[in-house]
Amino acid sequence: MTRWNCAGRLLAVLGLVLFATAAFDSGATGQTQRKLQPPILVTSSGQALDAFTVKTLMGRAGVNVTYDAKATASMLSDVKTVVIAVGVSNKGFGQAGITAETEMARTKEILQAAKDKGIAVACVHIGGPERRKGLSVQFVELVAPAADYLIVSKDGNADDYFGEVSKKTGAPLVVIERALDVGKTVASLITEG
């Protein structure tokens, strides 16, 4: 086998690995999608540290974002994309001095403002199975159907909930193998201008 054949096979294998790392499903409805564009705001829905993790990993991937775990709808005036990391942390609620009810109301206001202003919404779920139980369920079920993109870790989608949402809404679904891949995955979906 020549050196070029080896290189070609290696590139093919790498392509398959990358495809497996971030499997992409365009959804069933084929509706026109809003693009993920800067400026980008990253916030939480549920006050888990997942939003901070997303912000950090996006920064490492070279994406400049504004981060506020308790962002309000009024902060969307100069934003083209809002990335919402869903997952509840009761400890996070206590530290933020808020309740599940006020967090739900804040999330609804952000989603409505984004819809009214034509701002793209990316729902990110990297908390795995633990963030798919209990109180987290109502936050996931609020944000996911309203999102333009669904970016989820494989272990948090074992029941294919996000796949079903993608089929119903047409929002592209990107499944990542590891939470640590979220920054570069979101970065790959961003288009300038």
Write up this protein:
The chain is α/β, with parallel strands linked by helices and 193 residues long. It has one domain: 3-Layer(aba) Sandwich (Rossmann fold), CATH 3.40.50. Helix content is 41%, strand content 17%. It is built from seven helices and seven strands. A seven-stranded mixed β-sheet has the order 1-7-6-5-4-2-3, with helices on both faces. Strand 6, helix 6 and strand 7 form a beta-alpha-beta unit. Helix 2 crosses helix 7. The longest helix is centred in the N-terminal third of the chain and has 19 residues. The chain is globular. The N terminus is likely disordered.
Task: State which percent range the strand residues make up.
Answer: 15-25%
Describe the biggest sheet? 7 strands, mixed
Q: What is the β-strand count?
A: 7
Report the structural category: alpha/beta
Tell me, rounded to a whole number, the average pLDDT.
83
Number of helices: 7
In the CATH hierarchy, the third-tier topology is known as Rossmann fold
Distance N to C terminus: 45 Å
Q: Helical percent range?
A: 40-55%
Overall structural domain count: 1
Overall 3D form: globular
Low-confidence stretches: 3-32
The value of Rg in angstroms is: 17 Å
Q: Write the CATH architecture name.
A: 3-Layer(aba) Sandwich
How is the largest sheet built, in terms of strand order? 1-7-6-5-4-2-3
Order of helices and strands: HEEHEEHHEHEHEH
